[in-house]
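Me: I'm a chemist; would you kindly supply a protein sequence with its C-alpha cells?

Assistant:
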Amino acid sequence: MPRWLPRALVLALALLAAFRILTWAFHQTLGLLLNVLIAFFLALAMEPPVDRLARLGMRRGPATALVGLALLIAGAGFFAALGSVVADQVTRIVQNLPAYIGDVVGWVNATFHTDVDVGRLSTDLLRSDWVRGHLSTGAQSVWGISATVFGGLFQLLTIALFTFYFAADGPRLRAALCSVLPPARQVEVLRAWEIAVTKTGGYIYSRALMALVSAVAHYVFFQVLGVPYAPALGIWVGVVSQFVPTVGTYLAGALPMLIAFTANPWSALWVLGFVVLYQQFENYLLQPRITARTVDIHPAVAFGSVIAGTALMGVIGALVAVPATATLQGFLGAYVKHYELAETTGATGTAGGGAGAGRAAGSGGRRRFRGRRGGSGTSRNG
C-alpha cells in the first residue's frame, strides 16, 4: 500500500464530513439567513433618511428608531384599514347567511319539486360526523396555529432587530468590513455599498410615491362611483399594486371588484375598466418619469428577476429581486466600459446613398467604418 493512500482516504473522509456538516448547518440556518437578507435591504432603504437626520445633529440610534416608528405606524394603519373592511364583510356574510341558505333551499324546492326543511337540514348538519370530525381536528390544531403565529411574530422581531442594527451601525459596519481589505478593495466595497443604498432607496421611494398617487386616484374614483369603503380600498390598491411583485395588480383589483359587485354588478365592470386604464397610464406615463433617476431597469429584466428570485427563495426572493437586480445593474454600469455604436449599412443600416459612417470610441483610438450596400464593410484608421 502506498504511504500516501491512508492520508488521502482520511483527507477525503474529512472533506466529506465537513461538506455534510456545512450543508446541514446551511439548511438549519437558512431561515435566519433570509431574515438577515431582508433586514439588510430594509436597512439600505432606511439609510438615506437616517443619514439626513444624522446630518441635522441627531444620533443614528434615535434617528433609526424614529424612521422605523414611522414605517411601523404606516404599516399598522394599512392593516387596520384593511382589517376593518374584512371584518365588516365577514360580519355581513355571517348575518345574512341564514337568508342566503333559505333562498337557495327555496330555489331547490321550487326547481326540483323537493321538500327540504332548513331547520332539519341545519340540525342534521350540526349532528353529522363530518362536522364533528372537523371540529375535533380544529381543536387539536389550535396549538399548531398558535405556534405558527408566535413563530411569525418572532421572525418579524428578528428582522426588525437586524434592520435596526444595520441602519444604526452602518458606518461602523462598513469600517469594520473595509479594515480587513487592502485600500484598492476598500474603494470598490464603498462604491458598491453606495450604489446599493441609492438603488434600493430609490426603488422603495419611487414605489411609495406611485402607491400614494394610485391610492388617491382609486379613492376618488371609488368615492364618485359609490363603492363602499373607498378610503380603505384606495389604500389597498395603491400598496398591493406597487409592492407585491408580478401579481400585485390583479390582487389589488380583485377586492374592490368583489365589494363593488355586492353593491351593484355594473359597478364591478366600471372598477375593472378603471383599474386597467390606470395601469396603462402608470406603465407608460407615470412610472418612466418617477423611476428614471432611481431604478432605471427594463420591465422585462424586472419581471425575469422576480421569476428567478421566486424560484430561488420564494416570496422573499420576489420581494428583494428588483432592488438586487437594480443594484447589480448599477454596479456593472459603473465598471463596464461602454462604446459608441458604429453606424452600418445593409440589412440593419440606416445610412443612405450607398455609404454610412460611424465612430467607435475605444482604447486604441478612433476608427471610422465604411460599408458598402449589400456587402461587408472595410475599416480604415481614422
Strands lie at 357-362, 365-370, 378-381.
